[in-house]
Amino acid sequence: MVALVVVVTFVVLLLGVLVAGLLRSHADILRSLHELGVGVGDPAETSEQSSARSAPPRLPTWSESSSTLGPAPTVAGVTPAGDARAIAVDNADGFTLLAFLSSGCTTCAAFWDALQAPESLELPQGTRVAIVTKGPDREIPTEVSRLATGRVPVVMSTEAWLEYEVPGSPFFVLVDGASGSTVGQGVAPHVEQLLDLIRRAEHDRGRPYGTSRRPSARRNGPEREADADEVLQMAGIRPGDPSLYPQTLKDVFPFGTSSTNSSNGGPSARAE
Amino acid sequence: MATIRAHGIAAQLPRRFEGRIFIRPASVGVSYPVGQFATFPIPDDIGDFGSGAVTSMGPDDVFATLFEYGPESLGTALFSSQGRPSSLSPDDFSPVRLRRGIPGQSGTQRFFTEAGRPFSFYAVLGSHIRRNSLVPNVNELISSLSITPASTPPPEVAPRWN
Question: How confident is the prediction for chain A on average, in pLDDT?
Answer without folding.
Answer: 76
